Amino acid sequence: MTLVKIAYASNTGNTEGISEHLEEAFEALEMEVVREIADDIDEDFFEDADIAVVATFTDGDGELPTDFEEFYEDIEEVDLSGKVFGVVGSGDSELYADYFCEAANMFEQMLVKTGAKKGAETLKIENDADDDDIEAIKAFAKQLVEATN
After folding, report:
1. What pTM was computed for the model?
2. Interacting residues of 123 by C-beta distance below 8 A, sequence separation 6+
3. Cβ burial 52-78 (10 Å sphere, 16+ → b, else e)
């Protein structure tokens, strides 16, 4: 069975909710799913995954969440060749127009450096996921699963 691992960081609960929708979408596609908060993982979290997903918000002026900083720095040394990845960002474009989902962009670039294959375009969600976003999450999950074949 295909193993999907989702790493997430959440401050307001928006990204946690998004990670839950991701988990449900992958389970509906009959994938095995492990979802962990950033505080509880280290750089080898994706080592046994077929699909690696990062769900993150952007902190301050375009910065990574504190919970993800060490993971982000350490994952650069990990070889994720043969793995498919996707990134989902949550943000507020009204308050942070210049930095909207910047941490998601940073993770996308970092995961490419690890040798992982981008399986879907980075999904950017305004605040909490609404019904349209949930449909986009389902499509995102389907694209990632298809990319593993």
Report:
1. 0.95
2. 86, 87, 88, 89, 136, 137, 140
3. bbbbbbbbeeeebbebbeebbeebeeb
- Single-letter code of the amino acid located at 126: E
Reported as a single tens digit per residue, the pLDDT across 46-84 is 999 999 999 999 988 888 999 999 999 999 899 999 999
Alpha helix (H) residue ranges in the chain: 14-28, 66-75, 102-113, 131-147
Distances (CA, A) of 43 to 70, 71, 126, 148: 8, 6, 28, 22
**Contact in structure between 23 and 140 (CB atoms under 8 Å):** no
DSSP code at position 79: -
The string of pLDDT tens digits covering residues 15-54 is 999 999 999 999 999 999 999 999 999 999 999 999 999 9
Instruction: Give me the architecture of the 3-147 domain, per CATH.
Output: 3-Layer(aba) Sandwich (3.40)
